[in-house]
Amino acid sequence: MTIAIGNDHAGTDYKFEIVKYLEEQGHKVINFGTNDSNSMDYPDAIHPTAEAVETGQAEMGIILCGSGNGAQMTANKHQGVRAALCWNNELVELTRQHNNANILTIPARFVSLQQALGFVKVFLTTEFEGGRHENRVNKIACSL
After folding, report:
1. Average pLDDT per run of 10 along the chain, which is 144 residues long?
2. CA distances from 17 to 54, 65, 134 (A)
3. What is d(CA 92, CA 35) in angstroms, rounded to the nearest whole number?
4. DSSP annotation of 29
5. Which of 11, 56, 65, 75 has minimal Cβ neighbours within 10 Å of its Cβ?
């Protein structure tokens, strides 16, 4: 699977470890994030990550910033993107099962690296349930 990843300065350390994990699992990773801890504007990394998911260049995305809020808000401006801000495994599982989230948002300053890696594993291995949730998910995007 191809996975797009984007981060600001608050998520750089976690990003390196997540990329390592993903590549060990055989995934291709497209890195749109910064590779250092110098302050930068998160939309500059998040918009291209969301666009990669929106256009099908990547099947899934992972985005990181300090609180996760700004990254999630930015990503969700893109049609067809369903970015979910998660801080525990239950939320990750539910957002895949019920909302068919295609971008995982991690609040790097509020979770440990081990938690973040666990979220990625759950995100990539949990399937969308469809059924009653399908109609709801189809109503998320705005009509253009």
Report:
1. 98 98 98 96 98 98 97 96 98 97 98 98 95 89 73
2. 25, 15, 33
3. 25
4. E
5. 56
Ranges of each domain in the chain:
2-138
pLDDT at 48: 98
How is residue 142 written in tokens?
Answer: 């705005």
In one-letter notation, the amino acid at residue 74 is: T
Pick one of 3.20.20.70, 3.20.20.140, 3.40.1400.10, 3.30.310.180 as the CATH number of 2-138: 3.40.1400.10
* pLDDT at residue 144 in the model: 59
What lies within 8 Å, CB to CB, of 42 at 6+ separation is: 7, 8, 65, 70, 71, 74
> What is the model's pLDDT at position 109?
97
Q: Are 19 and 29 in contact (CB under 8 A)?
A: yes
pLDDT score of 24: 98
| Per-residue pLDDT at 107 | 98
Structure tokens at 42: 């998160």
Point out the residues that are catalytic.
65, 98
